[in-house]
Design goal:
This protein is α/β, with parallel strands linked by helices and 521 residues long. It has 3 domains: 248 residues, 2-enoyl-CoA Hydratase, Chain A, domain 1 (Alpha-Beta Complex); 186 residues, 2-enoyl-CoA Hydratase, Chain A, domain 1; 41 residues, no CATH class. Helix content is 40%, strand content 18%. The chain is built from 21 helices and 16 strands. Strands 1, 2, 3, 4, 5, 6, 7 and 8 form an 8-stranded mixed β-sheet that branches. Strands 9, 10, 11, 12, 13, 14, 15 and 16 form an 8-stranded mixed β-sheet that branches. Strand 10 and strand 11 form a beta hairpin. Helix 4 runs parallel beside helix 5, helix 5 runs parallel beside helix 6 and helix 13 packs parallel to helix 15. It is elongated, with a radius of gyration of 27 Å. The N and C termini lie far apart (70 Å).
């Protein structure tokens, strides 16, 4: 047979195998996804990556299971598309599970393909995008699932803090698959067409007797508002992938790089006098800290993370003078800006993520303290609040705080002072700072005098005013170098950018050797 004919035969065979992998389990199942308003596994990759940049790996891999009729259910690719490409010119590794093939279930081969991508991402110091649509472990493969599923957890954990890992829940993500997503830095979930949980409604009904729908158990609304598992909720598949692209804009390639400096046309010395009108000087009045953030940052562009979970705490990414920053801020509009269990967890996680990837941190402070109450104490506010103290101390990136109105009690170290590792601390002239407020302090310090006073109310009012003038003003803190400067509100943007600029090449003093720290639960 002529050589040309031999090649034609072999290439035809290759084309047939590739086409089989692209078709998955057939057009009928792909059509079903489309009817549900979802993109296919390959369409998701094509949408998020630069056109023509995707290189597929292990396209023809198949499971080796023959039990339960599985020898008749083999599909090239085994239900997950894996490879690498670029997003806006930046290298990324990516996998996209195919719910049209065996429900996207994870067996040994399926898992091995994902392990490989996760490992390559780490070895090449490149972000990894994990597009999840899996029914969980493939029960037909028995204990081979230990290899398939558990290996994913191992690689995710090794990658943590080395390369950004972004997970998307774009279909079912149940059982062990949910833990792989949870081990990533960020999770984006599509509303209505995706669910993530460890055990489904049927098992819960059988074990506990509780009845719950898929949406109420593991939908995007639940996980982005109640559990805090999901960082961002997306309207549909394309919006989900757009959010991942936006996230990558603020992240470096790995823990050895810094985020790209952004072009800045917003003057670094721009005065923000309007803050005086936004932030009421009266402590009893509320405002939305997000309005303050948008005034301060470049072009008002703030990308909030966890926007509808623990809303008394606001965290997210922005740029200031072209520097990518992570912002941690109390929101007085919600619960007075108190720190509670969820807010503490939310902030601590964000602080550690920013530190892992060399993103400077800005703390905007207006906090009356930790939320009091039996429910909070029994829920473990001590150990949850301690996470913030640990995260700030552990963080070596530049850290700048600005106290807008108040900072009391245990919230003082939790929101940022020099003694917890902050580099620069500013305060507005109207800011109040003290371990205990004026009235309770006076009642303790002047207990006997109050009992003996002819007019206890007048005496109390007089002593409160004296205490406020002596101890609650920022000048008391400035005199003891607790803060670096009392600043005019209009200069807030300029001062923070100035601090970021001088701290840009901050060197970290040597710390004692340790294998790793032990963060509170």
């Amino acid at each position: 047979m002529p050589l040309k004919k031999i090649w034609e035969k072999e290439l035809k065979k290759l084309h047939a195998r590739e086409n089989e992998a692209i078709q998955g389990s057939g057009q009928a199942r792909l059509k079903k996804l489309k009817e549900a308003g979802q993109l296919t596994a390959r369409e998701r990759i094509d949408y998020i990556l630069d056109k023509g940049s995707f290189v597929e790996l292990n396209m023809l891999a198949e499971h080796q299971c023959s039990d339960f009729g599985m020898d008749q259910k083999k599909f090239p690719g085994d239900g997950v598309v894996t490879g690498y490409g670029t997003i806006q010119g930046r290298k990324v590794f990516i996998y996209s599970e195919d719910a049209a093939v065996l429900g996207g279930s994870t067996g040994k081969t399926h898992g091995a393909k994902i392990h490989y991508i996760l490992r390559l991402a780490r070895e090449n110091m490149v972000p990894v995008i994990c597009l999840n649509a899996s029914a969980g472990a493939r029960i037909q493969e028995g204990m081979d699932n230990v290899y398939g599923i558990t290996g994913m957890f191992y690689q995710n954990s090794l990658n943590s803090g080395i390369v950004p890992q972004i997970a998307a829940i774009m279909g079912a993500c149940t059982g062990g698959a949910a833990y792989s997503a949870a081990l990533c830095d960020f999770i984006v979930q599509v509303e209505k067409t995706s669910h993530v949980f460890i055990t489904g409604p049927a098992v819960i009904k059988e074990v506990t007797g509780e009845s719950v729908t898929f949406e109420d158990l593991g939908g995007a609304k639940v996980h982005s508002t109640k559990s805090g598992v999901v960082h961002l909720a997306a309207r549909d598949d394309k919006h989900c992938l757009d959010l991942i692209k936006r996230l990558l804009d603020f992240l470096p390639q790995n823990n050895r790089d810094k985020p790209l400096r952004k072009a800045c046309t917003d003057p670094v010395d721009r005065e923000v006098a309007e803050l005086i009108d936004v932030v009421p000087i009266q402590q009893s009045k509320t405002y939305n800290i997000k309005d303050v953030i948008r005034i301060l940052v470049d072009d008002g562009d703030f990308f909030e993370i966890h926007p509808i979970f623990a809303t008394n705490m606001v965290v997210g990414f922005a740029s200031m003078g072209g520097h990518v920053v992570g912002i941690v801020a109390n929101n007085p509009r919600i619960m007075g800006g108190c720190l509670d269990i969820d807010a503490s967890d939310k902030a601590a996680r964000f602080i550690r993520t920013c530190d892992a990837f060399n993103i400077p941190l800005i703390s905007l402070v207006d906090v009356p303290g930790f939320l009091p109450g039996v429910r909070q104490e029994h829920g473990g506010i001590i150990r949850h609040g301690a996470k913030m103290l640990y995260a700030w101390t552990e963080a070596t990136v530049p850290k700048v705080s600005c106290i807008l109105r108040k900072m009391y009690g245990g919230a003082i170290p939790a929101m940022g002072v020099h003694q917890i590792g902050f580099d620069q601390v500013f305060a507005w002239p109207s800011a109040e700072m003290q371990m205990v407020g004026a009235e309770p302090s006076v009642k303790i310090l002047y207990r006997r005098e109050l009992e003996q006073a002819e007019d206890p109310s007048a005496f109390l009012e007089k002593k409160i005013a004296e205490y406020q003038e002596l101890y609650l003003t920022p000048y008391h803190s400035a005199s003891r170098s607790v803060i670096d400067a009392v600043i005019h509100p209009k200069d807030t943007r300029k001062m923070i950018i100035s601090a970021l600029t001088i701290l840009e090449n901050k060197a970290q003093p040597p710390r004692p050797f340790r294998k790793h720290g032990n963060i509170p639960l």
